[in-house]
Amino acid sequence: MKLKTILFPAALAAALCARSVLAADITVTDPFARASAGAASTGAAFMTLKNTSATDDRLVGASSPIAASAELHDHIKDGDIVRMRSVPEIDVPAGGAVALKPGGLHVMLIGLKQPLREGEEVPLTLTFARAGTVIVEVPVKSAGEMPPMPEMQHPR
Ligand SMILES: [Cu+2]
Fold it and tell me: What separation in Å is there between the alpha carbon of 82 and the centre of ligand 1?
């Protein structure tokens, strides 16, 4: 009986400890967002996610105070049209990296509360299944500095 009361808090402390160590296992590099045009209500953020741990992880959500919501998106080819679709999560394999880039995976900012102006930075919170939350300051770049995006349509 006495053993049990000692073990429980120790196990709990170990679990909390493991979580905070894992948060350092995800590195976000080269984040950027595309400057929004006029009164556009959506924007997109891109970056490279690197998993330096020996355990697979997944990006499972995102949010930003400058948007009503944020979704994880990918592009799929539907005949001649490239469409965006939301995906529930993005795999970040152990020891690997995944690039979120124009024309591919991205974080979609929906219901922008302010325009994305070139030269500004917007906060973005990324939530990982194992590593927990990572907050990134995302610089806004002009659309001209980026490769063109294919024609896109949002499913409605
Ligand atoms: Cu999108």
Answer: 11
Amino acid in position 28? V
Q: Which residues surround ligand 1, an ion (CB under 5 A)?
A: 73, 84, 108
- Whole-number pLDDT of residue 20: 37
- What would the CATH number be for the domain defined by 24-153? 2.60.40.1890
Ligand 1 centroid, distance to 61 Cα (angstroms):
14
The pTM of this model reads 0.77
Q: How many angstroms is it from 75 CA to the middle of ligand 1?
A: 8
Contacts of 35 (CB under 8 A, 6+ apart): 115, 116, 117, 118, 140, 141, 142, 143
